[in-house]
Amino acid sequence: MVVRNIGAKVIGFGQLVVLPGDIQELPPGYNEKHPVVQFYLEKKFIEAVSSIHATVPATSTGTTVTEPSAIIETAAENTAAVVETPKKVKSVNSMTLDELRAYAIELGISIDIKDTKAVLKQKITEKQQTE
């Protein structure tokens, strides 16, 4: 099953992490009947798409993109806009579980969907101390 993360937060399926806007093929066993998939579908965090090269309505001009190269260019445009925007970094202690996951991924830390807030805080703190 191929899905697009239409939510604003990072979501996971086993070892697979799907960032907002990403389209990914789910690992074996994750189908429409899987409880995690059903939950994300019901909450409108994901939508099923026909293929990894599905249409992405994400350009600044409002046009849709279907070619893989155009999808990459659009993502680069959107990323450039985000990179130019300065962001405040919250204290690790005040972050939610989803924010900790996203921050850990941003730092290049390997995470597991089963990681608790305490485990993620520890991993982030250890990574920050080594830099």
Could you describe the 3D structure shown?
By secondary structure, the protein is an alpha+beta fold. The chain has 2 domains: 2-84, no CATH class; 92-130, no CATH class. The protein is 37% helix and 13% strand. The strands form 2 sheets. A 3-stranded antiparallel beta sheet has the order 4-1-5, with helices on one face. Strand 2 (11-13) and strand 3 (16-18) form a beta hairpin. Helix 3 (97-106) packs parallel to helix 4 (117-130). The termini are far apart.
Summarize the structure.
It is built from four helices and five strands; from the N terminus they run ββββαβααα. With 131 residues, the protein is α+β, with helices and mostly antiparallel strands.
Structural class: alpha+beta
Number of structurally distinct domains: 2
Radius of gyration (CA) equals 16 Å
Strand order of the largest sheet: 4-1-5
- Outline, from the CA principal axes? elongated
Segments where pLDDT lies below 50 for 5+ residues?
A: none
Count all strands and give the number. Answer: 5
Q: What is the count of DSSP helices, taking H or I runs of 4+ residues?
A: 4
